[in-house]
Amino acid sequence: MDSKTYPFTHDPAQQISGLGECILLEHICNWLGDTTPIAPAGIGDDCAVMELDATQKTCITTDAISYGQHFDATVTPFEAGVKLIHRNLSDLAAMGAQPQSAVLTLLSGPDLALAWLKAFFKGVRSACVAHTLKIVGGDLSTLPAGQFSASLTLLGSCKRPLLRQNASIGDWLYTTGTLGGSILGKHFRFDPRLAEGQWFAAQDACRAMMDLTDGLGKDLQVLLPNDSSAAIDLNSIPIDEAAQAFGLQTGKPALQHAFCDGEDYELLLAVAADADCGRFETCWQAEFPNLRLSRIGQIISKHPAGVFIEKESGASIPWTYGYEHWKRDV
Amino acid sequence: MDSKTYPFTHDPAQQISGLGECILLEHICNWLGDTTPIAPAGIGDDCAVMELDATQKTCITTDAISYGQHFDATVTPFEAGVKLIHRNLSDLAAMGAQPQSAVLTLLSGPDLALAWLKAFFKGVRSACVAHTLKIVGGDLSTLPAGQFSASLTLLGSCKRPLLRQNASIGDWLYTTGTLGGSILGKHFRFDPRLAEGQWFAAQDACRAMMDLTDGLGKDLQVLLPNDSSAAIDLNSIPIDEAAQAFGLQTGKPALQHAFCDGEDYELLLAVAADADCGRFETCWQAEFPNLRLSRIGQIISKHPAGVFIEKESGASIPWTYGYEHWKRDV
Known about the structure:
- The structure is a homodimer.
- Chain A is of the alpha+beta class.
- Chain A contains 10 helices and 12 strands.
- Chains A and B meet through helix 1, strand 1, strand 3, strand 4 and helix 3 of A and helix 1, strand 1, strand 3, strand 4 and helix 3 of B.
């Protein structure tokens, strides 16, 4: 009798790759049971929030990058190092938190080149210095030859984290920056919106926030409360020039790329229905004159035509999907 | 011109595997510069320590397990899940900290079997429940087929962490439990010494502590202050029965296995020279009647014969090495 338990299987019906990331995560939460608290104390938001005392909270997030999945040889090691830090900082930004400390785990084949790793850490250091982040610990672990992954766990502090789950019907929807076509370069050159996130968290009118990593079409659905839809002003969607350029390559509308491309790393937020939007936007302009803030629509009661509706016509918007890591990459 | 930057190299002289873990870690600390604080605030102890306020500190540690490196198909997925949690808890134990929250990163090939992963999480959950630890977040990332790694970052709290660096000449050396031969089974069945670590941290007489992961022969050198040696009573070394059994297989003395085998996950500590050792040991027995505590020697001024000296004869003890992950595995 073979008493060995191999982790891998050739039977596609038993492989995790058939599930998709969301279903797999549901399984994991079920398996963990009481061991994983509900968000924001546990899994489900950009960070988990731990209460230290009445005034201060700690946010924690973790994110990895792997060679062959998140980057390849066309990316410089410096860029890969920056991206590892920035991806995680974007999750802190999405809570309105201030970066504090991080631990870094390297999993690598023995044939990793020292010079490559040095340049990778130059990128890590550069991003840490720019955001006053300290690397306080880590782990080194070996993988088979030709493999490299780096995982960061990041801690930040905040007074009032902006969660994903506090949006209400009537709230206004805003995004920072421009959307789509990130794959043409922005996904390695984005700035995590830390100052912006902290500013939003300090505004009473802001109710909910997240960062756009999987595309507006997928992420906005996370922000919407139960039994609601989003009435969207398509003219106000801030289409990135790269989405236009990418659309010329793919033959798809630039607007579709703005909805469905991943890795924008912009902020998406819900602002209270009764807020003075004009004043809110004026204050934003004064604080961040060089970054666009777009009011893209409003949360409405569930609409028979679907989850995203054109504000003027009431017609359904079809781009209700985005990037799903687990499925696309496997 | 090829503008691509491949992370891997066929030239052994340029591969990280030639360096050994300690040298690689030195490089990384140099590359990070000011971005990594000195221990205990940064890299260098079992955990990094962050001061929250005058009375409470947060300890953070991270550790990964990989299929093919830390376990293979002879290990059940349940055992692998338990080990991931216990390895990290042992680092908290080594500071005298209480477990609080953790985030878990999975890096896996698409062909991972769902049933295997479910059993892995059963192990994770079991260990978390036993130690009132919460999994508050995580990350899912893909690797090529046939690969599985899991990385945990763990937070704990403590009032007075016991560091590695506070031992002095004259201090008594103690270890918990028994040493050696862990590879025959204990490395998957050990109990992290959390209650014991917390008890030591509450004793004024305890000066420095660490967990034994790479073998007494390597780890004890970390605890010794500069210009010191350890005078060891070889008769007091608590040799595990497994070290005897393993010695019969390898033809090496059981005592060598007690010094040089990795993964004991026992605690090594320095107790103040002027402590009442008899009283200390009596209190220990009352608190932990089922776990052996061995006074194995004393820290002395640097001895001409070497770093480890036989207490009675002054002869050199040759077992001044242990397990080095990076080198052995590659």
